[in-house]
Amino acid sequence: MPAARLVTAASGLTSREVAARLDEHGRNELPAQRRPSLVARFLRELREPMALLLIAAATVSGLVLGETLDAVAISAIVAINALIALVQEGRAERALDALAELEAPSATVIRDGRRQLVDARTLVPGDVVVVHAGDRVPADVTVLDGDQLEVDEAVLTGEALPVAKRPGGVTDVDVAIGDRDGCLHAGTLVTRGSGRGHVVGTGLNTALGAIAEQLHDVRRDPTPLQRQLAGLTQRLGLAALVIASGVFGLTMLVQDEPSLDEAFLVAVALAVAAVPEGLAAVTTVALALGVGRMAARGAIVRRLAAVETLGATDVLVIDKTGTVTENRMRVSGVVQPDGVTHLPEAQPAALRDRVRRIVVLCSDATVDPPTGDPTERALLELAHGLDIDATRAATPRLGSAPFTSERKRMSTLHPHPDGAELLVKGAPDVVVALVTRVLVDDTQVALTDDGRQHIAEVTESAARRGERVLALASAVLPTVPGDVAEVEHDLVLEALVTLRDPPRASAAESVATVRAAGMTLLMATGDHPTTAAAIGAEVGIDGVVATGARLRSEGLPADPTKVPIYARVDPDQKLELVTRLQQLGHTVAMTGDGVNDAPALRSADIGVALGGTGSDVARAAADLVITDDDLATIVEAVREGRGIWSNLRKVVDYLVSSNLAEVLVVVVTLLLVPELGVPLFPLQLLWINLLTDGLPALALGVDPVDPGVMSQRPRRRDSRLLDLPHLRRLVARAAVIAVGGVVAVLVAHRTLDLDQETTRTVLFSTVVLAQVIYALVVRRIGVDHVQPNPWLWWSVLGAVALHVSIVLLPPAQTIFRTVPPPLEGWLLIVVCGLAAPMMLAARRG
């Protein structure tokens, strides 16, 4: 865009200009990753090992053995399985796409003469963007002005060190990105200072967009759970091939007139029946829908692997502000340096004017729209009735030293008749250490040791009430300094301001829930120790308090979980705490919101960023973003994570037990009733698998979370969906289910003297009924209170109805080789089909 079109007034673009440029340049977003076509995805499903095996069987059946009907039917089953997988994959993708919309980025711009917070996707060239430490740069920007502005460009350059940016610097696109000190690039992170600039590139017309165009074909790595499921399926597949080979030999051995084609097809079908090929698809849908439910409650999962880890979290390290408290700071009092406290609305005029001046000028916050640190926004309430923008315009900022977790103070420099005025606000212990005089009745007097002690007592008393105290100070300088930080001394203390951020109404209940769930809750905060202790005591987090100073001198405790509160800790100490807990074998979830929290969030097993007040840096480093910053939402996310894992266990239990039962039924029937011939034809086995691996399994995957899941201890981090002891239990269940089918065969063939086709239909129907009813039973095993799941009931009824139709309808009878049983045959099906699941329910597994 020509430079002339980028030049805008201090008021920024108008809404009309934005709309016109948005039509011209399009939205400020990268195109979605290119996905394979529907045909390509369908063919991918056909390349799965089990599908290839069935295709080979259909080919042999049709071309070699002349069984055209079987070949067509097997091919249809393969196609139906592939279509079901496509539908499930589509549901998962739609759920994840919806999550991406929830995490849409925002940007601070100047439009129509005022500062606004807008959807970053609506930025257009020429917009005036404002950035601060912790923001992600929303577009390519030319710097107009900056205050100690530094940016981490590692996402584009790989360079770990932040890069200083300045107005008038290099902007030439032919120069390497790392050398363009006059540009900010989309996707990079502001690590220090603040700045303002013109948008010069959006969407694909950015440095990040150029890289994104090369990434369309990049595939996501599978999560640990997906790798575990793939390994499980492969192991079961190998076992199935061995079993199928044995069944082929057994069929040829026990039959009087062995049929090579039927023995071959039964072996192939049995190999497929033994493998729960629907497990991966059901898992994907269960994860995606579970993640969607979490998003609806305000917990946005940025990485699917986080869902797997949530259920194993046994230590939760939380911040105080916003997580335990409302993060709605309110000024509770203004304290003169002589100790006299005034309510905010009852200050003397002179004190009120001095306090207003400092809280307005020494601040980056705005009221409309509400931007900036919550504490700064609360302080601006003291300026009620004052035109904040006009005040700031009349007294421009000449320089500043920003608040950081290390400095614990903010300073700004402004014009003064005698030279320049330095305004400072920050933690009392830090600011008072720089103070030499105090203002009493408009008179400056020296600050004595007794005065310092008195201020410390005021601060301590407020902290014990759970209040935060900020010191406001100033100094008049004869000249404008080059570095504001160098003149932060010899200050005059003007007032102390007390603020209170009350605990959330749900905090105490959330703390109790965490402990009932067998988790350890630690509070790590930068606040004053007594403030942290007071708030902690209100919500049930009480006990020993360790300070950052103590940790620096003595190091972390041998067992950090014995200390419930860590106060005045720095971000690097949070990282050390997380690392020590992990070394002790704990699975750690940690909350954070600042730029400096990013290393600890990245290191934690579950990094939880506070989306309401957190920085873009924290959100980028986190696995989970809590949109309302509430501890209750984190607890709900853990509950949902445990529920998802529990549902996946149910699906594995159901599919593995059911599929093994089919194998046992065929093998035992071949041995006990050899005169029956092939116990179940290939299409019948495939039909059973289609019913059981379909809707009932999917309904189990989205089962409502067990109300008692948060009264159990966290699972081990290395827990597997199917270990050897668990497999033994599933084999035992499969044996019980198989007994029902074998009994049905023996009674039908030898007691009721039914013919082979009718006996086979009885066995076929008994196995189907037993397996779909088992879906209702498996969710009750080991659970005291079962939540209603209408989807499961409908899936079971649908499966039964579909099966009855292929037994009764003549066209289906021809395809699946079924005949309608007599009344006593139907009674036998119902009794034997229900007996095994009911027995398992009575034995509770």
Outline: elongated
* Uncertain regions spanning at least 5 consecutive residues: 1-7, 215-221
- Characterize the largest beta sheet: strand count, sense, and whether it forms a barrel: 9 strands, mixed
Can you count the beta strands? 24
Mean pLDDT: 81
Distance between the termini: 70 Å
Structural class estimated from helices and strands: alpha/beta
Nearest-angstrom radius of gyration? 34 Å
Determine the strand fraction and express it as a percent band: 15-25%
Roughly what percent helix? 40-55%
Task: Report on this structure.
With 845 residues, the protein is an alpha/beta fold. The strands form 3 sheets. Strands 10, 11, 12, 13, 14, 15, 16, 17 and 18 form a 9-stranded mixed β-sheet that branches. Strands 8-24-23-22-9-19-21-20 form an 8-stranded mixed β-sheet, with helices on both faces.
